[in-house]
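In the design runs reported in the main text, the only information available to the sequence generator was the tokenized backbone. The following block is the verbatim input for one such run; it is reproduced so that readers can re-run the procedure and compare outputs position by position.
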């Protein structure tokens, strides 16, 4: 049975449910992920290597706030990370944190168990230093 999204209804579960996915800049992968991103199931989507359209925007449904990095507006081709925040979560319960990195998106969130910092980080393994 399907239930329409209603931002006025409180969540019955106290935990935060996050869907994380690297889309490899694929429009097809992004479209598939958005189809599966049920706002009645997920609170946040952490996306790496998102697809950007010809005007350097990603896409999301009306159920989500899209959080871009501040640098996205000056150097959009460097954007490697975004977060989608479910509109059921009141905007006075979270705020974006500026980490000054094109690879990380972060928020500060008030939860029933206290304040939390959530970071979505893209790690480019091709540029990583290691053994």
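Verbatim output:
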């Amino acid at each position: 049975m399907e239930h329409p999204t209603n931002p006025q209804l409180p969540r019955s579960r106290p935990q935060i449910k996050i869907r994380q996915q690297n889309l490899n800049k694929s429009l097809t992968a992004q479209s598939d992920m958005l189809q599966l991103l049920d706002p009645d199931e997920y609170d946040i989507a952490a996306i790496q290597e998102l697809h950007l359209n010809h005007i350097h925007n990603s896409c999301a449904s009306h159920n989500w706030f899209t959080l871009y990095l501040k640098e996205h507006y000056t150097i959009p081709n460097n954007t490697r990370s975004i977060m989608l925040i479910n509109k059921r979560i009141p905007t006075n319960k979270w705020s974006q944190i500026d980490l000054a990195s094109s690879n990380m998106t972060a928020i500060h969130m008030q939860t029933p168990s206290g304040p939390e910092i959530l970071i979505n980080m893209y790690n480019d393994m091709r540029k990583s230093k290691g053994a």
